[in-house]
Structures are given as C-alpha cells and as structure tokens.
Amino acid sequence: MKSAIIQLETLICPSCSQKIAAALKQLDGVEGESVTVSFSSSRAKLDFDETQVTLRDIENAIDRVGFEVVKSKIR
Amino acid sequence: MRKIQRAILKNKNSIALVSGVLIAAAFVVKWTGGPVLFTHVALIMASILGLIPIAIQAWQSLRVKVVSIDVLVTLAVAGAFAIQNFEESAVVTFLFLFGAYLEQRTLNKTRSAIKALTEMAPDTAWKRMEDGNFVEVDIVDVDIGDVLLVKTGARVPVDGRVLFGEGSVNEASITGESMPAAKEKNSLVYAGTLLDNGTLQIEADRVGEDTTFGKIIELVEEAQDSKSRAERFIDRFSRYYTPAILLTALLVWFFTKNVELAITILVLGCPGALVIGVPVSNVAGIGNGAAHGILLKGSEVIRDFSRLDRMVFDKTGTLTAGNPSVSEKIVYGDQADQALSLLASIEAESDHPLAKAVLENIGEVPRSEVTATHVVKGGGIVSSAGGHVVLVGNAALMQSEGVELSQAVQTDLLRLEAAGNSLVLAAVDGELKVLMGIRDQVRPGVRESLERIKRLGVKKLIMLSGDNQGTVDVIARELGLTKALGKMLPQDKSAYIKERIDRGEIIAFVGDGVNDSPSLALAQIGIAMGSGTEVAIETSNVVLMNSDFNRLPHALGLAKATVRNMTQNMVIAVGVVFALLASVLFGDWMNMSIGMLVHEGSILAVILNGMRLLGYKLRK
To answer: How sure is the predictor about B451, in pLDDT bands with cuts at 50, 70 and 90?
Structure first.
C-alpha cells in the first residue's frame, strides 16, 4: 500500500474537487476512503495498491476529468 | 480525442475573449438598428463557441457520475437554444467562462504568500560528479552524502554540513533572524537559506521534504488542507445541492412548461460562493501568517485560537531570554578594577550558573592566578588570588567571614532582591568591593506584547516557572500577569494544564518546545517558539517560526480577523442564494443571464474579500 500526493493546477471551482475525487475513487486499487482532494492547496492525496494501479494510471484518471497534474510523489 | 479536449480546455480564456467580442458586436449592431440576421448569427456563434469547453467539462464530469455545475449550465444553454433565446445562451456561456478566468486570477493571488514560501526551496543543485566536476542537477537527483556546491547569491538546496569554504548565510527563512550567520568547515547549513557571500561545498545530510524547510512547507500545506467541521459540512451539502437543483428544475419544467423559469433555476445550481468562501479565507489567513513567520495549523486551530480568553506561558526561554545576565553592578570603595579582575579570575574557574553572567559582564580584564579555593556550602567561595584573600558568594558568606555590610550596602541588597535578582557579592581582603544583581532578563518587547494580547481579549495571563516564587512574583508584577506559579517542574506544568482542561477550560500554552512537549501537546492550542526544533513544530498547533514572542499578538489578531472574514463570506454566500431564490420565485426581472451574473459575482466577491486578509496587519 502506497500513498500518493499529487499537486494539481490551481482549482477554481468547488465541483472540481468533487470530480477529481470521484474519478480517483472509481479506480480499482485505490482505497476509496483515503481519497482527499483539497481545494485550498490544490492537492489530492490517496492510498493505493501498487500491484493493481500505478501512479501513471492515477495521473491519467485525473487528466481524463480535465485537470493537469503539476507534480506527484509517492511515499 | 483527449488531445483535442485538452487543447480546447487550455484555451478557455481565448474562447471567452472571442465569444465576448462576438456578443459585443451583436449588441452594437442590434442597438444601431443593423440587420437582425447578423445579430442572430453572431450570438449563435458565440453560444456554440462558448458552449464547447463547458460541454466537454460536463461530459468529463458525467463520466465519473458527478453532476457538476457544467452539466447544469450545458442543459440551461441547450434550453435557451430550444426557445431560441440566443442572447441568453451567449451571455450565460460568456459569463461562465469569464468568471472562471477571473476566479483563477484572484485565487492565484490568494495563494501568492504561500507560493513565495515554497519558491524559496531551490529545484536544482550543483552536484559533484565522479570526475570531480560540478554539474547542475534536478533536486530530486540529490541523495544523502552527495557533495554540493553553493555559489554566492544562491539558496542552499539541502540540509548539510560545510566540507570546504566559508561564507555568510542569511537564515531568515528558517529563523527569522536577519543577522547573517558565519559558516565555515563543519558548520551546519539549512535548505532554503540564502548564501549572501562566499562559496561553500557541502555534504547533504537531509534532502527534499526531510529538510527543516521542507517540513515547514509541508506543515503549511497541510494546514491549508485541514478542514474544519463547518467546511466538511458544506462539502457534503454541495454534493447533494447540485443534483437537487437539477431535479427541481426538471420538475418545474414538467409542471409549468416554463422553460425560461426552469433554466434560470438551473443556473443557480451551484453553491459556489459558499464552498469557496471558507477555504479562501483559510488560505489567505495561513498565507499571511506564513509571510510573518507564524504557522497556524488549520482552520479549526484558527477558530479555537480566536476564541481564547486565557493563556498559560512558560517562563524561561519564552517570556525571558533563558540566559541569566547581570542587571546591575555596584562597586564600593576604590581599586574597583582590581576587585573586578580578581572576581573574574575566580569565576573563570567556577561552574556556578551565575559565573557565566558575571564573566560576560566584566568582560576582558587581566586575570590573576588563583592559588587556593575553598567552597562553603550554601555560601560561596573563599580563595586566594593575586596575593589577596577574595570572597565570592552571598550575603550570608560575607557575614560568616566577618565582612562588614554597611547601611548603604544593605539598602542596595534589599533593592536588588526586591527586583527579583540573585545576588553575587565579592570582598577583597575583608572589604566588600562588588555587588552584582543577576536575573534572567525578560525579553525585549514582551510587556507590550502581553498588553496587546490582553487588548485582543485574552484577559487571563498565567505564567509557570521552575524558579522560586519570589522571582516569579516580581516578573508577574512587572508584566501585568494574572497569576504566576513558581517551583514547577515540567511534570507539574503539564499536570496543571490537564487539571484546567478537565475543568472545561480552553487553554493555550506558550512554550519553547524543548521540555514543554507534554504541555504543548495537552493544551488545545499549543504555541511553540520553534526556531527549528522538530518536536515543537510537530506537537504544537501554532508555531512562531522565528521564536519571536512579539509575533504572538499578530498571530492572535490574524486568527480573529480570519474568522471574521470567513463569517463575512458565509453571510455573502448564503445571502446571495436566498436573494436569488426569492427573486426567481417572487420577481420576474430575474433571468438566466442575471442569475449567472450574480452567481459569478458572489464567487468573486467572496474571493476578493478573502484576499483582504493577505494584507492584514495588527494596529498598534
């Protein structure tokens, strides 16, 4: 189980965080409960099973709902 | 497909601009009596152009099963098209896109303080390669143990030790001290600090987010993330609000067949100002704090901090400098210099805590050889130096050794003691020569800061200290404290705090972190004077990053201002929602365009109000 912290472009709309959170939760291997998207800092945090989903998959999911990933790191 | 989508979304601002121009042109033509066809075509083009990015966002949102404002706006615009109201469709898309542009600009401004902080951490470093040359690499490629070159004017990229070279470093970003720190071989340097002059080769001890600076940045960002109960409630609320509005609009349309009314309702379907209102104040407040060396760890902390009516202070190192020093020196009779020189000679060999203060005060003087020393318990030292018999100690020692203390001396003794000093007397050959009063001095500015804190509504100021009650009482009087308790060991302090918390009080504890950790952790608001001590930063809720006690009034004032700001934003947001609903139900001047205008306006109002916090300064 790994944790990812993803820095996004500046979020400007309240439903932005909702879309991103929903997209992430729907990925297999992402622990739904752990997903948090902070509007204030434009960061998404989540725990995921690296055997089921990769950081690349996660970034793609975010891209698919229309947001740019500025930087991401794994712990 | 996705590439096209991304390209369109990236160019939202240009689309908005073109759309705006088309609309302006359309209206100009209309008002000057030009061809209606032109107006219609222009408006239709503007509508379609503006709708494209919005529709894409709506589609992306629906794919993850979220009903977002984009979905509602798309439907509204489609509805407007259906009833051939092209003015509305064009204006609404334009306002939505333009609003997003303004929001982005202003929100970026709000984050500017925090951005300035994170930008102080360099993202490249000059690393020594195997061949001995230095190459500029990305900061993520730096490992522990790497040798790095730091050039004049550059920021230190990691925490480490100097291997070679010397220079002076401005450590303001970590300690707030603008006095440059001299660095040479084996000195420690910290990431984020500025090498004013000189060149250093350093070995990396900690990199990236493990550096002291990295930890501070992480804390600032996490502070922004932390949501208060109110925010979490608003988040949950908004998740149901938007679909509910969609449903309402559909029902209204179904029952009244009034498309105009239905699409107007759709446009009101996002509690934008409410959801943004609280976080924006939070970010601005935390940003202002960070720019002033204050770390407020989250909106819940800010709220509790603003409501305080009492504070508990540790004395040593917080209210006082932590270093005893001579507050007054009196010499009697002649040959004062000789007496001081003898005193210095003896204190130089003493381990007594007050010796250091005495030596600092006397300074550089010729020293004599100390030939004999005899310690008298509870009294001081009897010794021979430079051919004289010298006594150094308290009044009791003087009396037992037969040194006469005149009336004048006794007056001085009483006066110094009453002022909370510890006394050191020195007699040479049976005559009293020197009297020194030594105290742990109160830090400059503390009294005024405490006054300001009281004026901000914290009426009860309590001090805890390990010193004796007498000393403590003197300071309490001097600083205007409500209560002062002495002879407290660290565990007594935390027990005291626990007791008050159990009685239902909200306690803030201000300490310097080193041995105050339990108390800092216990108090609801732990305030640490943490110039880098990690334990302090971790366990406390508010950190005065440069250990400057006098920032505390600003921190308190800022917390109150932030809470006021959040309340203002919520009032604006809720007020606007009610006003809009009322005008839809009861008035008939409301239409989709006006609804969108007010909606975007309220969001901007809330952001701009939040931005005011960035410039907050405590009035004198």
So the answer is: very high
| Tokens at B137, concatenated | 């690499």
| Rg value, chain B, Cα | 34
Residues of A within 8 A of B60 (CB-CB) are: 19, 64-66
Average pLDDT taken over every residue of chain A: 87
The pTM of the full predicted model, rounded to 2 decimals, is 0.80
- For A12, name the nearest residue in chain B, comparing CA atoms only: B104
Model confidence over A1-26: pLDDT tens digits?
888 889 888 887 777 888 899 999 99
The whole-angstrom separation of Cα B592 and Cα B17 is: 20
d(CA B141, CA B369): 58
Residues with Cβ within 8 Å of A40's Cβ and at least 6 positions away in sequence, in order, are: B224, B225, B279, B280, B282, B283
> Taking the CA of residue B458 as centre, how many other CA atoms within 13 Å lie in the half-sphere pointing to its CB?
29
* B2 in contact with A, Cβ within 8 Å: yes
Strands (E), B173-317: 181-183, 188-189, 194-206, 294-296, 310-314
Tell me the two tokens of residue B564: 């006021």
The answer on pLDDT for B214 being more than 70 is: yes
Least confidently predicted of B121-130, B173-182, B569-578: B173-182
pLDDT at residue number B515: 73
Chain A, chain B: beta-carbon pairs less than 8 Å apart: 79
Chain A residues whose CB is inside 8 A of the B108 CB are: 10
Contacts of A26 in chain B (CB under 8 A): 64-65
What local confidence, expressed as pLDDT, does residue B285 receive? Answer: 92
**pLDDT, tens digit, 9 for 90 and up, residues A51-67:** 888 888 899 889 888 88
CA end-to-end distance (rounded Å), chain A: 10
Measure CB to CB from residue B69 to each of A13, A40, A45 and give the nearest one. A13
What digits encode the pLDDT tens for the residues B73-110? Answer: 999 999 888 888 888 889 999 999 998 888 888 888 88
Contacts of A63 in chain B (CB under 8 A): 2, 6
Domains of chain B (ranges plus CATH)? 120-212 (2.70.150.10), 297-321+443-551 (3.40.50.1000), 322-442 (3.40.1110.10)
Q: For residue B219, give Cα distances in angstroms to B206, B256, B545, B554.
A: 17, 54, 12, 20
Q: What is the predicted pLDDT for the residue at B513?
A: 66
- pLDDT tens figures, B55-65: 999 998 898 88
The secondary element (H helix, E strand) that includes residue B58 is helix B36-63
Interfacial B residues in 262-301 facing A (CB < 8 Å): 270-272, 275-276, 279-280, 282-283
pLDDT computed for residue B51 by the predictor: 92
Catalytically annotated residue among B314, B412, B467, B516: B314
Half-sphere exposure of B10 (CA within 13 A, CB side): 8
Closest residue in A to B104 (Cα–Cα)? A12
Q: Best interface-test mutation with B: which of A3, A5, A7, A13 has the largest number of B CBs within 10 A?
A: A13
Residues of chain B with Cβ-Cβ distance to A46 below 8 Å are none
Model pLDDT, residue B555: 94
Question: Looking at residue B439, what is its pLDDT?
Answer: 84
Is there a contact between B100 and A22 if contact means CB atoms under 8 Å apart? no
| Residue whose C-alpha is closest to residue B223's, from B275, B160, B288, B167 | B288
Contact B221 A43 (CB under 8 A): yes
Taking a C-beta distance cutoff of 8 angstroms, is the pair B182, B198 a contact? no
